[in-house]
Amino acid sequence: MITGGAGFIGSHVVRLFVNKYPDYRIVNLDALTYAGNLENLEDVKDKPNYIFEKGDITDETRITELFEQYRFDGIIHLAAESHVDRSISNPLAFVRTNVLGTVTLLNIARQFWGTDKQGKLFYHVSTDEVYGSLGETGFFTEETPYDPRSPYSASKASSDHFVNAYYHTYGLPVIMSNCSNNYGSHHFPEKLIPLMINNIKNSKPLPVYGKGENVRDWLFVEDHARAIDTIFHKGKVGEKYNIGGFNEWKNIDIVNLLCSIMDKKLGRAAGDSAKLITYVTDRPGHDMRYAIDATRLNEELGWKPSLQFEEGLEKTVDWYLQHEEWINHVTSGDYQHYYDDLYAKR
Ligand code: NAD
Ligand code: DAU
Fold it and tell me: Is the pTM of this model over 0.85?
């Protein structure tokens, strides 16, 4: 079972597993919130080893029924509320899905797997944000103490602690990874990169929070999916692995790079799109810098990122320009209310 498989990263994980492992039966469990979109999986939806089940991870009855029906032996858990800005306006939704939903899954897995845990694995997908915010130097390692600052990262940190607790207390076979910022196709345009691509295309203001000097460590989403595959199959039970691109960028530098890539692609004069950059009020509690040390994953399991950022960003821009219908669907309806509400206040 892959939870959250209709979302951004989940859909890449589903696609990789369905295509690479024809002998696995992959059940994608997703509640289809605003962030879940079955159009993300058009290319695999008819494969014989793929099944979609709509359901909420907090719904104990529904999840129990699915366990009874499919007898899962592996879970890759990605379903979550994932956007920091939304967590600031509605923290409880994050506690509900990220904490309560994760514990519901852990409980049911424990109940079904009982004493025969051979060949079973609960893989929890988490974030580097649990480690807090870095100054100008240093990296997050697997030993960095947790220090979450936003309701989103606090809820993910809480879920990580529960996953560890189920390993130590009940011997549930778990594994966890904490990844840095992802980018790539099918990314919902509430997040920095797809939001800027969409606004540049539509000549709308480009809202840069604060001074644009916050730093994130960007990883191509297909590299994250490959890392999950590697850890799921080769990782050590009870361990955690950091995943990152060794690829730090200030937000303003990314926005400028996107502007120059898109000026060329849209046939605009150099510098045209950058005129849309608008500095807006900062995100409350805005973490300054994230940077992942992914040495363990590289040295122990042999994973490394495959793409240079500039190349990945250009591929991403091309995907958005070629998928106008996808972007139109996800930005219709509620998205406009969300956007107007959040950005009008800034
Ligand atoms: P996303 O918001 O794009 O997708 C989340 C998916 O979960 C959606 O399909 C949604 O419908 C589903 N979902 C939400 N609540 C649910 C519920 N109660 N029951 C069932 N399904 C539910 O998120 P994403 O960016 O793909 O992130 C996936 C996971 O990876 C999350 O756990 C996130 O914390 C983690 N992560 C994300 C990033 C990143 O850069 N996006 C980086 C590191 C880790
Ligand atoms: O680090 C991993 C995390 O990365 C994941 O766990 C989260 O699910 C994911 O959303 C992401 O969190 P961020 O807060 O880093 O991503 P976001 O795209 O929202 O913002 C990236 C940076 O860009 C951040 O410093 C805030 C800034 N920003 C964002 C938006 C949406 C802007 O300046 N303007 C914007 O309009």
Answer: yes
191, 220, 242: residue to mutate for ligand 2 pocket, most atoms within 8 A of CB: 191
Cα angle 150, 155, 157 (rounded to 5 degrees) comes to 95
Alpha carbons 212 and 298: distance in angstroms, whole number:
31
Residue nearest to atom 13 of ligand 1 (CA): 79
Catalytic residue status for 341: no
- Distance CA(33)–CA(58), nearest Å, equals 13
Helices (H), 171-217: 192-201
83 lines ligand 2 (CB under 6 A): yes
Contact 208, 280 (CB under 8 A): yes
Nearest to 288 by CA among 91, 193, 147, 190: 147
Please give the distance, rounded to the nearest whole angstrom, from the Cα atom of residue 191 to the centre of ligand 2.
6
Is there an atom of ligand 2 within 6 Å of 120 CB?
A: no
Catalytic (active site) residue 56: no
**Structural element, H or E, at residue 127:** strand 121-127
152 is catalytic: yes
- Alpha-carbon distance of 208 to 290, in angstroms, equals 17
Question: How many other C-beta atoms are found inside a 10 Å radius of the C-beta of residue 340?
Answer: 10
Distance CA 92, CA 152 (A): 10
> Using a 6 Å cutoff on CB, does residue 127 contact ligand 2?
yes
User: Does ligand 2 have an atom closer than 6 angstroms to the CB of 199?
Assistant: no
pLDDT (tens, 9 = 90+) of the chain, 346 residues, equals: 999 999 999 999 999 999 999 999 999 999 999 999 999 999 999 999 999 999 999 999 999 999 999 999 999 999 999 999 999 999 999 999 999 999 999 999 999 999 889 999 999 999 999 999 999 999 999 999 999 999 999 999 999 999 999 999 999 999 999 999 999 999 999 999 999 999 999 999 999 999 999 999 999 999 999 999 999 999 999 999 999 999 999 999 999 999 999 999 999 999 999 999 999 999 999 999 999 999 999 999 999 999 999 999 999 999 999 999 999 999 988 999 999 999 998 8
CA–CA gap between residue 227 and residue 248 (Å, rounded):
19
